[in-house]
Amino acid sequence: MPQTADEVLGIDDRLTPDELLTRERVRAFVDAEVKPHIAGWFDRAEFPVHLVPALGELQLLGMTLEGYGCLGRSAVEYGLAAMELEAGDSGLRTFASVQGSLVMGSIHRWGSEEQKQRWLPPLARGEKIGCFALTEPEAGSDPANMRTFARRDGDDWVLSGSKRWIGMGTIADIAVVWAQTDAGVRGFLVPTDSVGFEASVLEPKGSMRASIQTALRFDGVRLPSGALLPGAEGLRGPFSALSDARYGIVWGALGAARDSFDAALTHALRREQFDRPIAGFQLTQRKLVDMAVELHKGALLALELGRAKDAGTLTPAQISLGKLNNVREAIAIAREARTILGGDGVLLDNPPIRHAANLESVRTYEGTDEVHTLILGQHLTGIPAFR
């Protein structure tokens, strides 16, 4: 009897009942609400914003945070949820990551009590949407060289500059903006209806089409003193949020890879050539086996990192290892799965081509392959090669 990717991975026995319940709950949502429609959304470059409240009802936004409408679920549960969301589409998992890890995580970790009370509950419910503004046109992998600047003007701050590749910027209600100040990098909560705030969609895209990436411009945006995130000083503020987002990618990429594998296996068993299913040919079986091996290794790596995160022992180097490996292998799996589907593999009704395109963006954001390679290189040698 043919097996699904889950059966090949065989990690169910390593999961708790709560973890399994979370996985199945999110999977059922994705199967019912995302997969039947995602080809059209991708084709039309349409983000399913109508699903945001449902993600809130599923308690998937900021799910590892405690209080303020958040339930404080485990890192492994969050990882499993990220995997299922990305099995639907990278854009959906990206939204949960931006909202929950980058925006809500920054407010929860570095914000004042007033800021937490005002923003975290509606963000958790999906009633409000946030964006995280760090990357700039000339400062992608090198955020220390950001040019966006906030200057003091009496009790106020005046924000000027630009950001690029900011997820959800045109539909966000609040932006977490990182800017240089006379005292170093600080974070600010910027309502998107502020005078001088401008957001525009970056298009057309060949990847992450069922998502929204934007450019932001701040033309003398005046902010009250209460807009400052009081606990965040220097780059440790945005980097702490990025670590959480990168952890989610370790799991999420597996969802795209698993969905691609399952599509290839199903097709190989059904498609006949030379009077037999193509699954019966040695070359096809080798492709399926190679994909299954990497899926298994990636799942065990993600689970090990999740257990470490729940234990409070996970390191940035370990997160880099997970992101570098799992995204790289997920792209290879999606591409190989596409070959098994032959010509039909380029049709959007079949997911591998879409996952392969999306994963090129996942490979680039939250640290490129090169950045994570150098992080691990510094960890191994003690010598920083960034400069």
UniProtKB/TrEMBL annotation:
<keyword id="KW-0274">FAD</keyword>
<keyword id="KW-0560">Oxidoreductase</keyword>
<dbReference type="InterPro" id="IPR037069">
    <property type="entry name" value="AcylCoA_DH/ox_N_sf"/>
</dbReference>
<dbReference type="Pfam" id="PF00441">
    <property type="entry name" value="Acyl-CoA_dh_1"/>
</dbReference>
<dbReference type="InterPro" id="IPR052033">
    <property type="entry name" value="Glutaryl-CoA_DH_mitochondrial"/>
</dbReference>
<dbReference type="Pfam" id="PF02771">
    <property type="entry name" value="Acyl-CoA_dh_N"/>
</dbReference>
<feature type="domain" description="Acyl-CoA dehydrogenase/oxidase C-terminal">
    <location>
        <begin position="234"/>
        <end position="380"/>
    </location>
</feature>
<feature type="domain" description="Acyl-CoA dehydrogenase/oxidase N-terminal">
    <location>
        <begin position="16"/>
        <end position="127"/>
    </location>
</feature>
<protein>
    <submittedName>
        <fullName>Acyl-CoA dehydrogenase family protein</fullName>
    </submittedName>
</protein>
<comment type="similarity">
    <text>Belongs to the acyl-CoA dehydrogenase family.</text>
</comment>
<dbReference type="InterPro" id="IPR046373">
    <property type="entry name" value="Acyl-CoA_Oxase/DH_mid-dom_sf"/>
</dbReference>
<keyword id="KW-0809">Transit peptide</keyword>
<dbReference type="InterPro" id="IPR009075">
    <property type="entry name" value="AcylCo_DH/oxidase_C"/>
</dbReference>
<dbReference type="InterPro" id="IPR036250">
    <property type="entry name" value="AcylCo_DH-like_C"/>
</dbReference>
<feature type="domain" description="Acyl-CoA oxidase/dehydrogenase middle">
    <location>
        <begin position="131"/>
        <end position="221"/>
    </location>
</feature>
<dbReference type="InterPro" id="IPR009100">
    <property type="entry name" value="AcylCoA_DH/oxidase_NM_dom_sf"/>
</dbReference>
<keyword id="KW-0285">Flavoprotein</keyword>
<dbReference type="InterPro" id="IPR006091">
    <property type="entry name" value="Acyl-CoA_Oxase/DH_mid-dom"/>
</dbReference>
<dbReference type="Pfam" id="PF02770">
    <property type="entry name" value="Acyl-CoA_dh_M"/>
</dbReference>
<dbReference type="InterPro" id="IPR013786">
    <property type="entry name" value="AcylCoA_DH/ox_N"/>
</dbReference>
